[in-house]
Amino acid sequence: MALRADWLPALAAFEAAARHQNFAHAAEELHLTASAVSHHVRKLESRLAVPLFQRHARGVSLTAEGRQLADAAGSAMADMDDVLRSLSAASDDRERVRVTTLHSLAYSWLIPRLPQLTALHPGLRLNVDTEIALTRFDDGGPDLGIRHGPGNWPGLTAHHLMDDSLFAVASTSLPGVDAVRDAADVAHLPLVSDLSRQGWHDWFRAAGVHGVRLDERHSFSDATDALAAATHGLGAALARARIARPYLGDGRLHQLPGPVLKARWGYYVVHPAHRRLRPAAKQVLDWLMAVEKD
């Protein structure tokens, strides 16, 4: 006897009834009435010419034939469920894009702009990885990276995203900050630094301040941590404009007197030169290049 498509509703009702050992519970799961489930089961029993359930006052229980069919139906439903989940996950993966960048840029620049991206591409799924080390773009690695650097990395295609600038900032809670009138006065404050290649010595040189002993008390690997330290009054920090904007906007930090120094390096969107971008990753790249930078 060949399985036909018109058997499927009856088999689905039977599988649920067999799993619950209860027609009412099966009906609730399938959004049917108990009488509809019973009708499907009786129709299946009639076609097979075997009883699948024993009916008694306390409910129903499977016959030997019913148990045999229930095992097969349950296994088939489980296999179908696995396939459907796999297909759904594959569809989700096609819309998922992994982007790697620095924590400082993600917090201050990228995340505040992501609502624009989700409004433009509602189906997009984004994984944002933040780390200091340069991520390897092997198979299975990130689709895109936003890097701060010179703009040329072996094996990567780089798209210039934006430039940056450096200036001194501090919290009003920093002792002695009220007396600062020029860049030379900044040199007498405790200083906070990060691992940027441009630091306080470059800034003071640009300001024309020479021959002073700098008190660089605290150093952090991430620019966000350096700015957070400055907000707590640990010292003045040399901030990149792209990173400092949230801190200046809400008054946690204030710009100090002195030069605004053009950053030696810029920000670039990078991806493997040998690998064609998936459509979803291309959407993110196009958005990054077009998004308002200021």
From TrEMBL:
Domain of life: Bacteria
GO terms, molecular function: DNA-binding transcription factor activity; sequence-specific DNA binding
UniProtKB keywords: DNA-binding, Transcription, Transcription regulation
Signal peptide (residue range): none
Acyltransferase in keyword set: no
Protein name, per record: LysR family transcriptional regulator
Protein family (similarity comment): Belongs to the LysR transcriptional regulatory family.
Domain HTH lysR-type per the UniProt entry, residue ranges: 8-63
Biological source species: Montanilutibacter psychrotolerans
GO BP annotations listed: DNA-templated transcription
Record flagged with keyword Manganese: no
